[in-house]
């Protein structure tokens, strides 16, 4: 972390203007993204025991994923609003008059972007891989092992090979009345069970609950008849029972697949090792696309100060909103190009030089050209006509709309 107290006065002043909107944008962005996912998680875990704890655990695993989105957006907005405020209050002009150029004002945010780029590399390269797998493992456990906790009355539910329906459910005591259960066992046949009632019993040291059925009937088929051949029909056993106990789900160590089946669950060293291994053609394309996408995403954060500063300062105050709009459109379009480029590499084997590094190079050249023009040259901003046309077009549309509304009233 940067120790702001030891920075020169100019750097501390610039950082105060940038860090405040950066922190606000980061907080709001994370809250919005996590709130959207919270709604979907509530649908999955509603009614489950310890559902609040499970929700917070899942949200915690999602934080690194959303940090990867929030850090570049928050840094970009922080620099836009921070330098815009300094420019609007003529503080940039005062610095320039005092011999402090724009390149000097940009030095602390460039250092900040380097720190955040390295942090993002750790998030993209290591942290997201493990938390994404942990999120999927917990969600799998919620949906499969403990699916009886999420059952609804009068609705058919699926738990592994079992299909069941409950007539009456008491969530507080984990008890239910009148159950129909069909267990499909493939070539080994099936088992059909009906019971007057039952309950779920938790086990100490085992995540699998015990399904206890009381006073019921059971029909078990040892196989399936082959109607196209003259074979004996499979044997069937039926009977009644007073109580049956059976564990639900699988053993915890085999509840979910090992990490690394999906390329997004691999760390950067693991991706690098697989690139130089001998995977299949389809797999190598997915690994290559994921590996270079992470590197480009991290490197892009370092280029954001050079892209943001020219859009944040300007000579005409009334057009700052249009400059912001153009800057955000460029950043969003670039992010979409990188995402779709990674998909093209994974699906069709398109070279990463085209799908990842070419857009990054073009954005970097554009950002550096704009930065050098603003910092070291006195010529007029060549994008100024774009802002003026946008302002004129929006102004005419607004006047036309107000005129029509006024005519109607």
What does this protein structure show overall?
The protein has 2 domains: 4-143 and 261-403, no CATH class; 151-247, no CATH class. The chain is built from 9 helices and 6 strands, in the order ααααββββββααααα. It has helices at 9-45, 51-88, 91-97, 102-145, 268-275, 281-312, 320-348, 352-376, 384-408; strands at residues 157-159, 162-170, 175-184, 190-203, 206-221, 236-247. Strands 1-2-3-4-5-6 form a 6-stranded antiparallel beta sheet, with helices on one face. The two termini are 59 Å apart. 27% of the residues are buried. Mean pLDDT is 81; it is low at 250-254.
Observed structural traits:
409 residues; alpha+beta
Q: Which SSEs are present, and which pair or pack?
A:
Blueprint: H1 9-45, H2 51-88, H3 91-97, H4 102-145, E1 157-159, E2 162-170, E3 175-184, E4 190-203, E5 206-221, E6 236-247, H5 268-275, H6 281-312, H7 320-348, H8 352-376, H9 384-408
Antiparallel strand pairs: 1-2, 2-3, 3-4, 4-5, 5-6
